[in-house]
Recover the amino acids of this structure.
């Protein structure tokens, strides 16, 4: 009987972690948090281009802030900037990733992805706020999917 109680306790204790994998939380998803010298806390930044980003209060979709990305590089292989965050996901479970985006003179060929399970193409041109989304399922067992 002691074994059954232990299993029940383990299942109860593990339930929150399964829930967080089914409905993962993206830290600072609305980019409302800003710290001195860090416009996107909770996110990492890696660049192989002349590019960057900044937090701005002008014309956010919702809330008080949005991120503005800039790029002075020509489109070429291995030239990119990547704002990224690891998010826990379960293999074989379908997730939806959506975001609101607006653009000014956006070049063609830009996309977001995790380099394994999905690629979300960014519209080219100049446009107001629009929602873009993709569905994906992680094919391999891993603790997280890195989105950026």
């Amino acid at each position: 009987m002691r074994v059954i109680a232990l299993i029940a306790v383990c299942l109860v204790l593990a339930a929150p972690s399964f829930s967080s994998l089914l409905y993962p939380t993206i830290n600072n998803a609305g980019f409302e948090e800003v710290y001195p010298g860090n416009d996107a806390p909770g996110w990492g930044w890696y660049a192989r281009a002349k590019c960057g980003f900044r937090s701005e209060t002008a014309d956010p979709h919702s809330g008080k802030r949005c991120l503005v990305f800039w790029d002075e590089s020509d489109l070429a292989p291995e030239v990119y900037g990547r704002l990224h965050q690891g998010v826990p996901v379960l293999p074989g479970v379908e997730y939806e990733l959506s975001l609101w985006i607006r653009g000014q003179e956006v070049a063609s060929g830009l996309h977001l992805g995790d380099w394994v399970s999905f690629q979300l193409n960014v519209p080219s041109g100049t446009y107001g706020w629009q929602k873009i989304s993709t569905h994906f399922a992680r094919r391999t067992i891993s603790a997280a999917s890195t989105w950026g």
